[in-house]
Fold this sequence. Notes:
Layout: E1 9-15, E2 21-27, E3 30-38, E4 43-49, H1 52-59, H2 65-70, E5 76-82, E6 88-94, H3 104-107
Antiparallel strand pairs: 1-2, 2-3, 3-4, 4-5, 5-6
Amino acid sequence: MEKVPPQLQLGELIPLADGTEVAVGYGTGGQFLVMSISGRDGGCWVCAPASDRAVQCVRDGVASPWSVVHHSATGTVDVYRSCVDGSIQESVMLCSALPMGHGVLVAA
Length: 108
């Protein structure tokens, strides 16, 4: 699976202590911390607008990526899902409406 949705440009991959990776992507909305998740029909990306400090906290292991997602710089996250026909569906969610962990796939 790609590390960022096609709408963003990959800037950096951040390896986490558990062996997974998150990405930093850049787009028209600025800098995003991107979590790539397998969805029902293909890739799914949860993209949180993130400050330099928030990204550095993830790099240093001081904050979990889910903390950054649940407390994004704008109070919202963009969720991109791959569809069976190859298209990408985008939705915007309030951070306060997000469930924890992979449950975000059900909510998006």
